[in-house]
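Changelog excerpt: complex records now keep ligands as SMILES alongside chain sequences, and the structure block spans every component. Example after the change:
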Amino acid sequence: MAKKLLLFTDLDGCLLNKHDYDWRPAEHTLNRLADLGVPVIVATSKTASEVRALLDEIPICPAPFIAENGGAIEWGPWQGNSDASENTGPSRTVILEILNSLTTRYRFRSFETLGISGVMKQTGLPLAEARRALNRQCTEPLLWDDTDSQLARFRAELDSNQLTLTRGGRFWHVAGRTSKGAALTKIVDEFGGEQTVVAAVGDSQIDQSMLDLADLPVGIRVNGTLSVRVSVPPGIIPESEGAAGWAEAVSEILDRIN
Ligand SMILES: [Mg+2]
Protein backbone atom coordinates (compact mmCIF):
# COMPACT_ATOMS: atom_id res chain seq x y z
CA MET A 1 0.00 0.00 0.00
CA ALA A 2 1.60 3.28 -1.14
CA LYS A 3 -0.48 5.44 1.14
CA LYS A 4 -0.78 4.99 4.86
CA LEU A 5 -4.38 4.60 5.94
CA LEU A 6 -5.61 5.57 9.39
CA LEU A 7 -9.14 4.23 9.81
CA PHE A 8 -11.21 5.76 12.60
CA THR A 9 -14.54 4.19 13.42
CA ASP A 10 -17.50 4.51 15.70
CA LEU A 11 -18.74 1.20 17.12
CA ASP A 12 -22.53 1.08 17.70
CA GLY A 13 -24.39 1.19 14.41
CA CYS A 14 -21.10 0.98 12.49
CA LEU A 15 -18.56 -1.78 13.23
CA LEU A 16 -21.14 -3.23 15.65
CA ASN A 17 -24.69 -3.83 14.47
CA LYS A 18 -27.25 -1.63 16.17
CA HIS A 19 -29.61 -4.47 17.02
CA ASP A 20 -27.30 -7.29 18.19
CA TYR A 21 -23.84 -5.65 18.60
CA ASP A 22 -22.40 -8.26 16.22
CA TRP A 23 -19.19 -7.36 14.31
CA ARG A 24 -18.80 -10.66 12.45
CA PRO A 25 -20.33 -9.44 9.17
CA ALA A 26 -17.11 -7.32 9.02
CA GLU A 27 -14.76 -10.17 9.92
CA HIS A 28 -13.40 -10.71 6.40
CA THR A 29 -12.66 -6.98 6.00
CA LEU A 30 -11.08 -6.80 9.46
CA ASN A 31 -8.77 -9.66 8.51
CA ARG A 32 -7.87 -7.86 5.29
CA LEU A 33 -7.02 -4.70 7.30
CA ALA A 34 -4.93 -6.72 9.74
CA ASP A 35 -3.03 -8.36 6.86
CA LEU A 36 -2.29 -4.89 5.43
CA GLY A 37 -1.30 -3.58 8.88
CA VAL A 38 -3.97 -0.87 8.79
CA PRO A 39 -4.84 0.31 12.31
CA VAL A 40 -8.52 0.43 13.18
CA ILE A 41 -8.81 3.32 15.62
CA VAL A 42 -12.03 2.97 17.56
CA ALA A 43 -13.77 6.24 18.48
CA THR A 44 -16.77 5.62 20.66
CA SER A 45 -18.95 6.82 23.49
CA LYS A 46 -17.98 3.62 25.31
CA THR A 47 -15.59 3.69 28.25
CA ALA A 48 -11.99 2.53 27.97
CA SER A 49 -12.78 -0.61 29.96
CA GLU A 50 -15.67 -1.46 27.61
CA VAL A 51 -13.46 -0.98 24.57
CA ARG A 52 -10.66 -3.11 26.04
CA ALA A 53 -13.11 -5.96 26.64
CA LEU A 54 -14.37 -5.72 23.05
CA LEU A 55 -10.90 -5.51 21.52
CA ASP A 56 -10.05 -8.81 23.17
CA GLU A 57 -12.53 -10.38 20.72
CA ILE A 58 -12.19 -8.31 17.54
CA PRO A 59 -9.20 -9.11 15.28
CA ILE A 60 -7.59 -5.69 14.78
CA CYS A 61 -3.99 -4.41 14.90
CA PRO A 62 -2.84 -2.81 18.15
CA ALA A 63 -3.83 0.87 17.91
CA PRO A 64 -4.74 3.75 20.17
CA PHE A 65 -8.43 4.32 20.70
CA ILE A 66 -10.76 7.16 21.58
CA ALA A 67 -13.15 6.55 24.47
CA GLU A 68 -16.02 8.58 25.91
CA ASN A 69 -16.60 10.55 22.70
CA GLY A 70 -13.12 12.03 22.60
CA GLY A 71 -12.81 12.78 26.32
CA ALA A 72 -10.15 10.09 26.67
CA ILE A 73 -7.42 8.92 24.33
CA GLU A 74 -5.94 5.56 25.21
CA TRP A 75 -2.48 5.59 23.63
CA GLY A 76 -1.39 2.41 25.34
CA PRO A 77 -2.09 -0.31 22.78
CA TRP A 78 0.24 1.41 20.29
CA GLN A 79 2.93 2.25 22.79
CA GLY A 80 3.07 -1.08 24.56
CA ASN A 81 1.96 0.62 27.75
CA SER A 82 -1.62 -0.09 28.73
CA ASP A 83 -1.64 2.80 31.23
CA ALA A 84 -0.84 5.54 28.71
CA SER A 85 -4.18 7.31 28.74
CA GLU A 86 -4.96 10.99 28.36
CA ASN A 87 -8.03 12.89 29.58
CA THR A 88 -8.74 15.70 27.14
CA GLY A 89 -11.38 17.46 29.27
CA PRO A 90 -12.81 17.79 32.81
CA SER A 91 -13.15 14.68 34.95
CA ARG A 92 -16.46 12.92 35.53
CA THR A 93 -16.34 14.07 39.17
CA VAL A 94 -16.44 17.71 38.03
CA ILE A 95 -19.28 16.94 35.57
CA LEU A 96 -21.35 15.16 38.26
CA GLU A 97 -20.98 18.12 40.64
CA ILE A 98 -22.45 20.42 38.00
CA LEU A 99 -25.26 17.96 37.13
CA ASN A 100 -26.11 17.62 40.82
CA SER A 101 -26.61 21.39 41.00
CA LEU A 102 -29.20 21.15 38.17
CA THR A 103 -31.35 18.24 39.43
CA THR A 104 -33.89 20.46 41.22
CA ARG A 105 -34.79 22.35 38.03
CA TYR A 106 -34.62 19.72 35.29
CA ARG A 107 -35.90 16.17 34.94
CA PHE A 108 -33.24 13.77 33.73
CA ARG A 109 -31.63 10.50 34.79
CA SER A 110 -27.86 10.22 34.59
CA PHE A 111 -25.90 6.97 34.80
CA GLU A 112 -24.89 8.05 38.31
CA THR A 113 -28.52 8.34 39.45
CA LEU A 114 -29.66 5.25 37.53
CA GLY A 115 -27.04 3.20 39.35
CA ILE A 116 -25.97 -0.28 38.33
CA SER A 117 -29.49 -1.76 38.22
CA GLY A 118 -30.93 1.20 36.30
CA VAL A 119 -28.10 1.09 33.79
CA MET A 120 -28.67 -2.65 33.31
CA LYS A 121 -32.38 -2.04 32.77
CA GLN A 122 -32.00 0.90 30.35
CA THR A 123 -29.17 -0.58 28.29
CA GLY A 124 -29.98 -4.28 28.52
CA LEU A 125 -26.36 -4.91 29.53
CA PRO A 126 -25.51 -7.79 31.87
CA LEU A 127 -23.84 -6.97 35.20
CA ALA A 128 -20.17 -7.14 34.18
CA GLU A 129 -20.79 -4.98 31.12
CA ALA A 130 -22.89 -2.47 33.06
CA ARG A 131 -20.00 -2.14 35.53
CA ARG A 132 -17.65 -1.35 32.65
CA ALA A 133 -20.15 1.21 31.31
CA LEU A 134 -20.24 2.88 34.73
CA ASN A 135 -16.43 2.93 34.97
CA ARG A 136 -16.28 6.40 33.42
CA GLN A 137 -13.53 9.01 33.31
CA CYS A 138 -14.86 12.16 31.70
CA THR A 139 -18.45 12.00 30.38
CA GLU A 140 -21.91 11.29 31.76
CA PRO A 141 -24.76 9.82 29.70
CA LEU A 142 -28.31 10.74 30.62
CA LEU A 143 -31.90 10.09 29.65
CA TRP A 144 -33.86 13.30 29.14
CA ASP A 145 -37.28 13.28 30.85
CA ASP A 146 -38.17 16.96 30.43
CA THR A 147 -39.50 19.17 27.61
CA ASP A 148 -37.62 20.45 24.56
CA SER A 149 -37.68 24.03 25.84
CA GLN A 150 -36.24 22.88 29.15
CA LEU A 151 -33.59 21.02 27.18
CA ALA A 152 -32.52 24.29 25.52
CA ARG A 153 -32.20 25.96 28.94
CA PHE A 154 -30.32 22.96 30.35
CA ARG A 155 -27.91 23.07 27.43
CA ALA A 156 -27.28 26.79 28.03
CA GLU A 157 -26.53 26.14 31.71
CA LEU A 158 -24.09 23.39 30.79
CA ASP A 159 -22.50 25.72 28.26
CA SER A 160 -21.94 28.38 30.92
CA ASN A 161 -20.06 25.67 32.84
CA GLN A 162 -17.90 24.85 29.78
CA LEU A 163 -19.80 21.59 29.28
CA THR A 164 -21.49 20.28 26.15
CA LEU A 165 -24.59 18.18 25.52
CA THR A 166 -24.71 15.89 22.50
CA ARG A 167 -27.14 13.24 21.39
CA GLY A 168 -25.69 9.79 20.87
CA GLY A 169 -27.61 6.79 19.61
CA ARG A 170 -29.65 6.25 22.75
CA PHE A 171 -28.52 8.70 25.41
CA TRP A 172 -27.57 12.35 25.71
CA HIS A 173 -23.93 12.80 26.66
CA VAL A 174 -22.62 15.54 28.93
CA ALA A 175 -18.92 16.20 28.38
CA GLY A 176 -16.24 18.82 28.40
CA ARG A 177 -15.53 20.73 25.20
CA THR A 178 -14.06 17.62 23.67
CA SER A 179 -15.00 15.77 20.51
CA LYS A 180 -14.14 12.71 18.51
CA GLY A 181 -12.82 15.08 15.85
CA ALA A 182 -10.38 16.84 18.23
CA ALA A 183 -9.13 13.46 19.45
CA LEU A 184 -8.76 12.27 15.84
CA THR A 185 -6.60 15.33 15.12
CA LYS A 186 -4.30 14.52 18.06
CA ILE A 187 -3.83 10.97 16.85
CA VAL A 188 -3.26 12.01 13.23
CA ASP A 189 -0.70 14.62 14.40
CA GLU A 190 1.11 11.89 16.31
CA PHE A 191 0.99 9.07 13.78
CA GLY A 192 0.13 10.60 10.40
CA GLY A 193 2.47 11.87 7.69
CA GLU A 194 2.53 13.33 4.18
CA GLN A 195 1.04 10.24 2.58
CA THR A 196 -1.57 9.56 5.25
CA VAL A 197 -5.18 9.07 4.24
CA VAL A 198 -7.68 9.49 7.06
CA ALA A 199 -10.95 7.60 6.83
CA ALA A 200 -13.71 7.84 9.43
CA VAL A 201 -16.93 5.88 9.83
CA GLY A 202 -19.93 7.19 11.77
CA ASP A 203 -23.70 6.95 12.03
CA SER A 204 -24.83 9.68 14.43
CA GLN A 205 -24.45 13.40 15.08
CA ILE A 206 -21.74 12.72 17.65
CA ASP A 207 -19.55 11.36 14.84
CA GLN A 208 -19.88 14.45 12.61
CA SER A 209 -16.75 16.25 13.92
CA MET A 210 -14.72 13.17 12.99
CA LEU A 211 -16.33 12.77 9.55
CA ASP A 212 -15.74 16.46 8.77
CA LEU A 213 -11.97 16.02 9.29
CA ALA A 214 -11.61 12.81 7.30
CA ASP A 215 -10.36 12.58 3.71
CA LEU A 216 -12.78 9.69 3.26
CA PRO A 217 -15.88 10.02 5.45
CA VAL A 218 -18.32 7.12 5.66
CA GLY A 219 -21.90 7.58 6.85
CA ILE A 220 -23.93 4.53 7.80
CA ARG A 221 -27.70 4.59 7.84
CA VAL A 222 -29.73 3.42 10.84
CA ASN A 223 -33.17 1.99 10.03
CA GLY A 224 -32.98 3.54 6.57
CA THR A 225 -32.12 7.04 7.81
CA LEU A 226 -28.78 8.80 7.45
CA SER A 227 -28.13 11.15 10.41
CA VAL A 228 -24.72 12.46 9.35
CA ARG A 229 -23.59 14.73 6.49
CA VAL A 230 -21.26 13.06 4.01
CA SER A 231 -20.42 14.33 0.52
CA VAL A 232 -20.29 11.52 -1.98
CA PRO A 233 -17.71 11.34 -3.53
CA PRO A 234 -15.17 11.21 -1.93
CA GLY A 235 -17.31 10.03 0.97
CA ILE A 236 -19.19 6.75 0.98
CA ILE A 237 -22.71 5.86 2.08
CA PRO A 238 -23.02 2.08 1.88
CA GLU A 239 -26.25 0.35 0.97
CA SER A 240 -26.14 -2.01 3.95
CA GLU A 241 -26.37 -0.97 7.59
CA GLY A 242 -24.29 -1.92 10.65
CA ALA A 243 -21.27 -4.18 10.32
CA ALA A 244 -22.19 -5.28 6.78
CA GLY A 245 -22.31 -1.64 5.65
CA TRP A 246 -19.03 -1.00 7.45
CA ALA A 247 -17.41 -3.87 5.57
CA GLU A 248 -18.84 -2.66 2.26
CA ALA A 249 -17.48 0.89 2.71
CA VAL A 250 -14.08 -0.10 4.11
CA SER A 251 -13.55 -2.63 1.30
CA GLU A 252 -14.23 0.16 -1.20
CA ILE A 253 -11.67 2.39 0.58
CA LEU A 254 -9.04 -0.36 0.42
CA ASP A 255 -9.77 -0.93 -3.27
CA ARG A 256 -9.45 2.81 -3.96
CA ILE A 257 -6.11 3.40 -2.25
CA ASN A 258 -4.37 0.21 -3.24
MG1 LIG B 1 -22.99 5.04 16.58
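The longest strand covers residues 196-202. The chain has a mean pLDDT of 93.
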